[in-house]
Every structure is written in structure tokens, then in C-alpha cells.
Amino acid sequence: MTTIEQNIQTCGLVTELTNSQTDNFEIIQKHWKTFNEELKKYNINQNSGNWVKYGITFKTDEKYFYLTAIPTNNLLFPDNFTSLEIPKGEYEIFTHKGKMENIKQTIFEIYKVILPKSNLKIEDHTKVGFIHFEKYDYRFQWNKSTSIIDIYLPLNTIISTDKLNMDSYKTQILNKICYTELVYERINKKLNSELSKKEIEKKLFDIIKETNELNFQKTGKNIYVTNNERNIRVTINLNIYRVITVDVVDKNKKTTNR
């Protein structure tokens, strides 16, 4: 077990995974190449021999995704990159040694052999924002037998930083919320309404203001504000506080993000 002392802010590229580990390995391998090409294209350098990269697996709406990322460190990233925070706390580290193509066997062993026989309590992915992450550093050598990748699983001693920061998120959103011209039309269509721009802005401001912070859920670069009383969920890009869309929540399936 190890302790991450400070939250780690990361940013990178996301790709969707499948239910096949074999297919996922091919997807991830190609995605790493694309990510590295993007870093080079935009001249995003860590400027240090102590470089580090992360491969973060997370789940949203029953779909699995993989984020290739680096620490933000005040770097500038293109709009197609996604931010994700690794919260401070206690983690169990498993080490994969050898060819990268064999990492799927290591992950299988972790989840199907080691964890069922251990007393480790792994934190739910909805509380930390991901399932596990891989850490790549100077020890990583692609397909050499001496290559090393650390795999971090969050333990349930972690206090979700999202929960701790929701009040701050809410304040920031209310202060900085913005819209594009197209989103007004999208909102009216979703709500089956004919509201003016000012009416939409006031409506969403009131919805966000009155929504309990427990119903704020951060996933990747977006935050979802679900107001069960009004049966509306607002999706906001947290990087620029821009409203992306709204959705009507099924009255018979009210949910609270606790």
C-alpha cells in the first residue's frame, strides 16, 4: 500500500473500450501512439528526465473508457483533451513486469485471483472517478522483459475530492457559467419549450443554485447537475464552465448521486 499525498491533476485523450480484453489491448496500444503524436504536435513537453504518464480506466453510463494522460503542471492543452483528477489517499500498487502486451494477464490476475482472496477493500469507481490507473515512468520500456508498469487501485480509505469540492464547483459554475448560440436552441428542443436566452439563463441558474451538492457528479471534463425536483439534468464543461446540454430526468427513475 502507498499513499498519494496530493491530488494529481491530469489531462489527455480518451478512447472508448470494448468488452474484449484482446481488442482493448489493440485499442489502447494504438491510442498511446496517437496520444504521443498529439503531445509532439502541440509541443507539450514535461521538460524533465523524471517524466510520468498515466493510463486511466474509467466507466460512464455502463461504458468503459481509457484516458492516456500526463500531469497538467500548468501546461496548455488543446480543446480535445480531457481533464481528470487522481485524488490523494491510499492505493494498492500491483506491478506488471515484462512486455506491455502481457499486461492484460496481469490485470486479469489482479481482479480474478488476487483480490477475491485478499481482504483489500477497493473504492467504488463512482466515488473516485476511475477504476484503476497505470503509471508509466522511466522504468517503462515497451516490450522489453525488464519493463515495469505500476497499476494503482484506490482503497476505500480515500475521501472523494469531488465530494469535498462540490461546493466550490457550484460556486465557480454560478459565477462563470456561459453559453454558445447553438446551445440555446438545443435546450429549448430538449425541454420542448420556446424560452428566450435570458429566460434559459435564469432557469438554469436557479436550477443549479437550488440543487444540493450531493447531486453534482464530476466525470472527466464534465459535471452533471441533477435536479430531481425539476426533473432536469444539466451538463457543464468544467474546464470553461460552458453549458453543453440539458436532459429531462425520468420522473419514475429519480436518482441521487451519493
Verbal overview:
The chain is of the alpha+beta class and 258 residues long. Helices cover 31% and strands 30% of the residues. It is built from 6 helices and 12 strands. Strands 1-6-8-7-3-4-2-5 form an 8-stranded antiparallel beta sheet. Strand 9 (216-219) and strand 10 form a beta hairpin. The longest helix is centred in the N-terminal third of the chain and has 21 residues, at 21-41. Mean pLDDT is 88; it is low at 253-258.
**Shape descriptor:** globular
Rounded average pLDDT? 88
Largest sheet: 8 strands, antiparallel
β-strand number: 12
Strand order of the largest sheet: 1-6-8-7-3-4-2-5
Helix content: 25-40%
Between the first and last Cα atoms, what is the distance in angstroms?
Answer: 27 Å
Could you tell me the strand content as a percent range?
25-35%
Count, helices: 6
Low-confidence segments, ≥5 residues, pLDDT <50?
253-258
Question: Which structural class is indicated by helix and strand composition?
Answer: alpha+beta
Compressed to H and E, one letter per element, the order equals: EEHEEEEHHEEHHHEEEE
Rg, Å, rounded: 20 Å
Notable characteristics:
single chain; 258 residues; alpha+beta; 8-stranded antiparallel beta sheet; 4-stranded antiparallel beta sheet; 12 strands; globular; disordered C terminus
